[in-house]
Amino acid sequence: MHRITLAIALLAGATAGASPAPPLQVRAPVGAPNVVVVLLDDVGFGAAATFGGPAETPTLDALAHEGLRYNRFHTTGICSPTRASLLSGRNAHAVGIGAVMNSADERPGYTGVHAPDAATIAEVLRRNGYNTAAFGKWHQTADWEISQSGPFDRWPTGMGFEKFYGFFGGESDQFEPTLIEGKTPVLRPQGKGYHLTEDLAQRAIEWLQAQHSVTPDKPFFLYFAPGATHAPLQAPKAWIEKYRGRFDAGWDAIRPEILARQKRLGVVPANTDLTARPAGLPAWDSLSADERKIAARLMEVYAGFLSHTDAQIGRLVQALKDGGEFGNTLFIYIVGDNGGSAEGGLKGSISYMGAIQGLPEDRVKTLSRLDSFGGPDTYAQYPSAWAWAMSTPLQWMKTVASHLGATRNPMVVTWPARIRDRGGLRSQFGHVNDILPTVLEAVGLEAPTVFHGIRQKPLDGTSLAYSFNEPQAPERHRTQYFEVYGHRALYHDGWMASAFHARLPWQVISRDQKPFEADNWELYDLRNDFSQAHDLATQEPGRLKALQALFMEEAARNQVLPLRGQVLNANLPSLTRGRTSFTYYPGAVVPEADAPDIFNRSWTLAAAIEVPDAGARGVIATMGGAPAGWSLYLDAEGRPVFTYRAFEAGAIELAGNAALGAGRHVVQVDFNYDGGGYAKGATVRLQIDGTATREGRLAVTPPKFFSINETFDVGVDMGSAAGRYPEETGPGYAFRGGRIERVDLQLR
User: Fold this and answer.
1) Residue 6 — pLDDT band, cuts 50, 70, 90?
2) 598 and 488: one domain?
3) Is the peptide bond before 177 cis (omega within 30 degrees of 0)?
4) Backbone dihedral angles phi then psi of residue 425, each to the nearest 5 degrees
5) Residues of the domain holding 220
6) Is 0.90 topped by the overall pTM?
7) Are residues 441 and 586 in the same domain?
């Protein structure tokens, strides 16, 4: 007993004299706010009603009334670079993402590989006691890194986000999306009436509630980036019908109306002038009556889509208020990652991924489907001139980074606990790279100089917190370059030098050979010319020359050089290059970018399956989605079926005579390309156990892709339905009742 007592006494003494145990939890700074960043997609300066546009945005209105409107905030002019700059606080080229993932190339500033010396806002906040989550569009991971083979260190969960639910590509079907949760491909939830934006909002709310339930004192960072309003324009019909007839007057008539509202709201100066319609865009009155009907309806769909999106953000705001979190939440609502998108072409399209590849649409047939626009059977985008109109009063639209129609986007910031000037307007120059330093200052953190043992690039952005309660404070972001596809500009102390290069924004694929030396530079005094309406290049040649030189300095510093136009067929890693033979097994889900390149050539697909006595049904293999793609499946009766759709240009369906009997079978598809160039036709043959069963013809085939975000799958269809599956089945039409042994694909 004595020894035990002595031991206890010695232990107590040792414990009393020991150093305190190290903390096992990192806590955020005292009073640190929650942070929510909302980033919409493809919304021009003049689209939302809060900034004078035709689309009603009551959530944005309410937040603007409670907080601040920023009317000189800027993005990069295109989506992936904007997102890279926002998340890193650096210029997009400096972190390796100077172009969208689908147009990356081998130049250091354009590889699509996020540099390790530019930690994201999520990484920094998570390391400092925050919960972090991202919902929606990512578009930040290189094509060869987005498959289930990884690597996963540049996926959202490898870049600071504890939770991710959304999609990786530039766009997604809103009714049948291709989804990733964490690192795993998942099907959309069961049930009718599904819409992706609603799903994203619900998932975000559930995450907030779970986080608050377990750790109510722990702040969070929520990045909410829906696919809206990027094409396809898809929204619940009731939201579209709200705008019936509102755009019948056309884009030339609506621009002055938008500008008048903007002036009344004070979001543009009273002396702002409209800019001219770009050469190449048609006047509204030059369209035929049928063309005007199609164009007006597509704009109704767009407006409904934007209003529906704003309503889902309203649900998020209400959840924060209901949970008592809103008062100390820094809420940043950025209305677009660039200006309006011209990718629908001059006349618009109900299947725009085909239209941008040059595949035809029958306008008579399109007109007959007017009431279905925006629904699950269309993949629509409005005409290019609507993108120009939705960027009122500015020049140009998405991708033309030389001009403000591509790069100036509205932003609203609220923080009830700290922002006192409710409903105020801020006109200091801001850029998307300012978001990270703004958040860090609000939280009370410094940007790390070393992260994960890697010395970090200095921030390029400047915190906007100085403007929160000082409306007339001098702007601190004094210099900023812009560049996309050779279009380039330089902002410095109220002036902007702009050089349009060659690629027209409605020409999604461009092979320009124009020398950069031939580009015409323009000069604008943005202190007195909000819209870039008055070119002063001839009056101020010395100033223009100085800004041109400054652009070259910034371009060299940020890996913008050497300049090129749009790059096609870049020399980047590929998971399939050089291979002609592929074998896949059940459960394979391969992004189209990493799937065999079956375009403009012949190929053979052979699937070995086992069927039990009770029969089997479901998807065997598929690629693409509802607008374009193919699917080999067993229908409700167990018959083999092969479908192929080339957007609006044609489709075939080849079906076996009867259900497959019990035993092992080989179902084969021979795709025999006509040859002689791109997008030619093909003869397609379905074989069962070596016997030809059906044959069909395609007049044309897609020359480059089916989609940006769909997949090649075995045993399930992960995105939108590429086949005509039984109506009673849920998402995916998974293979059931038998076994898929293997699927072999041979390129010929």
Assistant:
1) very low
2) no
3) no
4) -115, 135
5) 34-467
6) yes
7) no
